[in-house]
Amino acid sequence: MKVLIIEDEPAAARRLKKLVIEILPEVELLPVLESIAESVAFLDQQPAPDLILLDIHLADGASFEIFQHVTVKIPVIFTTAYDQYAIDAFQVNAIDYLLKPIKREALAKAINKFKGQQVAPSIDYQKLAQQLEIRSEARFLIRLGQQIKLLDVKDIAYAYTEDRITFFMTNNGRRYPVDYSLEKLEELLPEDRFFRINRQFIVGLSAIEEMVTYSKGRVKLTLQPAAEQDTIVSTERSPVFKKWLNAY
After folding, report:
1. Which domain covers residue 58, as residue numbers?
2. What is the b/e burial string over 9-44, where b = at least 16 CB atoms within 10 angstroms of the residue's CB?
3. Are the C-beta atoms of residues 241 and 195 closer than 8 Å to each other?
4. How many whole angstroms separate alpha carbon 126 and alpha carbon 138?
5. In this predicted model, what pLDDT tens digit does every residue of 130-175 receive, in sequence order?
6. Which pLDDT tens digit goes with each residue over 103-134?
7. Among 50, 93, 105, 235, whose Cα sits 20 to 30 Å from the Cα of 147?
8. Are residues 53 and 153 in the same domain?
9. CA dist., res. 198 & res. 181, Å (int)
């Protein structure tokens, strides 16, 4: 049985490893992972383990974010320090959980429960996160060859298409390709900070350095970092753009 521990607290990870080995002497413990990015990269490339022990809060955010980027169909036991409200949410969603500090008896019971299941439970992890009122800044998974990077929304200046590829431009002038169309990014990016100005660009409010009136009622933008293409709000989008500026 292969068990993966995802935990960013070294002491908690050591205790989990010790307890798992005591309960399952034949276990194959995979290397402990400490972050969302590390976990996504591992689960995306490696054969799936039989069981995951997953801390809810990791160094780079809420662990539910992992499930936005990779499909996990195996049992997951969450570790948490949440109160009774959160425990009720776990019970409703038929997920097992362990309250920290983790006790041997509780871990043994959870592992035996999953060993007795024929199929992993079907869980809506995003719904569970909402029930637990976990709020984290939206992030995007960036793939750079074999490397994986998580890009925070606050670091994005604008998004644009070029040669049928979508890119993010960051506030510090770095460009990253993304696996989303501009149409999808319109849904994902917060509407109070980003606006689709035309077929090629979604601009961030903080990236707008200057605005001037242009022909046919349009608005021409100067962005920072500078864009190689003209950034002109289309005729049909200009009235909506002005309302958006006033709203936010």
Report:
1. 2-131
2. beebbebbbebbeebbeebebbebbbbbbbbbbbbe
3. yes
4. 13
5. 665 554 556 787 877 777 788 889 999 999 999 999 999 999 999 9
6. 999 999 999 888 876 455 566 666 666 665 55
7. 50
8. no
9. 13
